Amino acid sequence: MKWFVANTKFRGELRAQESFTALGINSYVPVYEEKREWSDRTKKTTTPAISGYIFFQAEKINYALINLNPYLKNVLRRFGKAVEIKSSEIDLMKNCLKNYTEEASFGPGDSVKILSGCLKNKEGIVETIEGSFLTLLVNSIKVKLSLNHNQLKAVS
How far apart are CA 27 and CA 40, in angstroms? Predict the structure, then answer.
Protein backbone atom coordinates (compact mmCIF):
# COMPACT_ATOMS: atom_id res chain seq x y z
CA MET A 1 0.00 0.00 0.00
CA LYS A 2 1.19 3.51 -0.82
CA TRP A 3 0.54 6.72 1.08
CA PHE A 4 -0.90 9.73 -0.74
CA VAL A 5 -1.75 13.23 0.41
CA ALA A 6 -4.89 15.30 -0.22
CA ASN A 7 -5.93 18.89 0.39
CA THR A 8 -8.94 19.28 2.67
CA LYS A 9 -11.56 21.96 2.91
CA PHE A 10 -11.07 24.62 5.60
CA ARG A 11 -10.79 22.91 9.01
CA GLY A 12 -12.03 19.64 7.51
CA GLU A 13 -9.05 17.41 8.33
CA LEU A 14 -10.66 15.39 11.13
CA ARG A 15 -14.01 15.13 9.33
CA ALA A 16 -12.19 13.94 6.19
CA GLN A 17 -10.52 11.27 8.31
CA GLU A 18 -13.90 10.14 9.67
CA SER A 19 -15.25 9.97 6.12
CA PHE A 20 -12.26 7.90 4.96
CA THR A 21 -12.79 5.53 7.90
CA ALA A 22 -16.44 5.10 6.88
CA LEU A 23 -15.26 4.28 3.33
CA GLY A 24 -12.79 1.71 4.70
CA ILE A 25 -9.69 3.71 3.72
CA ASN A 26 -6.77 3.95 6.16
CA SER A 27 -5.89 7.61 6.73
CA TYR A 28 -3.76 9.73 9.03
CA VAL A 29 -4.02 13.32 10.22
CA PRO A 30 -1.05 14.42 12.34
CA VAL A 31 -2.57 16.04 15.45
CA TYR A 32 -1.53 17.30 18.86
CA GLU A 33 -3.49 18.46 21.90
CA GLU A 34 -3.29 22.03 23.09
CA LYS A 35 -5.02 24.12 25.71
CA ARG A 36 -7.05 26.96 24.19
CA GLU A 37 -8.19 29.86 26.30
CA TRP A 38 -11.23 32.03 25.71
CA SER A 39 -12.54 34.80 27.93
CA ASP A 40 -14.98 32.45 29.70
CA ARG A 41 -13.26 29.04 29.62
CA THR A 42 -10.15 26.99 28.93
CA LYS A 43 -10.45 23.84 26.85
CA LYS A 44 -8.12 21.11 25.63
CA THR A 45 -8.48 20.79 21.84
CA THR A 46 -7.12 18.46 19.18
CA THR A 47 -5.33 20.51 16.51
CA PRO A 48 -3.95 19.29 13.16
CA ALA A 49 -0.18 19.74 13.01
CA ILE A 50 -0.33 20.27 9.24
CA SER A 51 -3.52 22.17 8.56
CA GLY A 52 -5.31 21.55 5.30
CA TYR A 53 -3.86 18.09 4.57
CA ILE A 54 -4.70 14.44 5.15
CA PHE A 55 -2.62 11.37 4.33
CA PHE A 56 -4.34 8.22 3.11
CA GLN A 57 -3.30 4.74 2.04
CA ALA A 58 -4.26 2.98 -1.21
CA GLU A 59 -2.82 0.53 -3.73
CA LYS A 60 -3.46 3.06 -6.47
CA ILE A 61 -5.49 6.23 -6.71
CA ASN A 62 -9.18 5.53 -7.30
CA TYR A 63 -10.63 9.00 -7.86
CA ALA A 64 -14.20 7.68 -7.93
CA LEU A 65 -13.75 6.42 -4.36
CA ILE A 66 -11.70 9.43 -3.18
CA ASN A 67 -14.31 11.88 -4.52
CA LEU A 68 -16.93 10.33 -2.21
CA ASN A 69 -15.22 12.17 0.64
CA PRO A 70 -17.06 15.52 0.81
CA TYR A 71 -14.30 17.19 2.89
CA LEU A 72 -11.56 16.93 0.26
CA LYS A 73 -10.60 19.53 -2.32
CA ASN A 74 -8.09 17.55 -4.36
CA VAL A 75 -5.29 15.00 -4.30
CA LEU A 76 -1.86 16.62 -4.42
CA ARG A 77 -0.07 16.08 -7.71
CA ARG A 78 3.35 16.80 -9.08
CA PHE A 79 3.90 16.80 -12.83
CA GLY A 80 0.39 15.39 -13.26
CA LYS A 81 1.02 12.36 -11.02
CA ALA A 82 -0.31 11.92 -7.46
CA VAL A 83 2.37 12.59 -4.82
CA GLU A 84 3.43 9.44 -2.99
CA ILE A 85 4.68 9.61 0.61
CA LYS A 86 7.06 6.99 1.98
CA SER A 87 5.78 4.87 4.87
CA SER A 88 8.93 5.73 6.80
CA GLU A 89 8.03 9.45 6.60
CA ILE A 90 4.52 8.77 7.93
CA ASP A 91 6.00 6.68 10.77
CA LEU A 92 8.46 9.49 11.55
CA MET A 93 5.57 11.99 11.83
CA LYS A 94 3.63 9.62 14.09
CA ASN A 95 6.62 9.09 16.39
CA CYS A 96 7.48 12.79 16.47
CA LEU A 97 3.97 13.85 17.52
CA LYS A 98 3.51 10.96 19.96
CA ASN A 99 6.05 12.55 22.32
CA TYR A 100 4.92 16.15 21.79
CA THR A 101 3.85 18.02 24.88
CA GLU A 102 3.07 21.64 25.59
CA GLU A 103 4.35 21.31 29.14
CA ALA A 104 7.29 23.56 29.81
CA SER A 105 9.73 23.15 32.64
CA PHE A 106 10.92 26.19 34.53
CA GLY A 107 13.71 26.64 37.00
CA PRO A 108 14.52 29.30 39.57
CA GLY A 109 15.70 32.49 37.88
CA ASP A 110 13.86 31.82 34.58
CA SER A 111 11.95 34.69 33.01
CA VAL A 112 8.29 33.84 32.30
CA LYS A 113 5.12 35.52 31.05
CA ILE A 114 1.71 35.00 32.71
CA LEU A 115 -0.82 33.63 30.20
CA SER A 116 -4.10 34.06 32.07
CA GLY A 117 -5.82 35.87 34.91
CA CYS A 118 -5.80 39.48 36.02
CA LEU A 119 -2.01 39.70 35.52
CA LYS A 120 -2.10 38.34 31.97
CA ASN A 121 0.94 39.32 29.84
CA LYS A 122 2.95 40.48 32.88
CA GLU A 123 6.50 39.14 33.05
CA GLY A 124 8.29 37.86 36.11
CA ILE A 125 11.07 35.67 37.45
CA VAL A 126 10.58 32.20 38.98
CA GLU A 127 11.66 32.26 42.60
CA THR A 128 10.81 28.75 43.93
CA ILE A 129 9.15 25.57 42.67
CA GLU A 130 6.93 23.42 44.92
CA GLY A 131 5.30 20.46 43.20
CA SER A 132 3.31 21.63 40.19
CA PHE A 133 3.19 25.23 41.49
CA LEU A 134 5.87 27.85 41.44
CA THR A 135 6.37 31.18 43.16
CA LEU A 136 6.81 34.04 40.76
CA LEU A 137 8.21 37.50 41.47
CA VAL A 138 6.44 39.92 39.13
CA ASN A 139 8.90 42.77 38.58
CA SER A 140 6.58 45.57 37.58
CA ILE A 141 4.46 45.34 40.75
CA LYS A 142 6.74 43.47 43.20
CA VAL A 143 4.26 40.74 44.15
CA LYS A 144 4.79 37.03 44.81
CA LEU A 145 2.31 34.64 43.16
CA SER A 146 1.81 30.89 43.24
CA LEU A 147 0.83 29.70 39.76
CA ASN A 148 0.46 26.39 37.95
CA HIS A 149 2.95 25.59 35.14
CA ASN A 150 0.24 25.78 32.44
CA GLN A 151 -0.44 29.42 33.28
CA LEU A 152 3.07 30.50 32.25
CA LYS A 153 5.19 30.71 29.12
CA ALA A 154 8.99 30.95 28.98
CA VAL A 155 10.35 34.30 27.79
CA SER A 156 13.61 34.34 25.87
Answer: 35
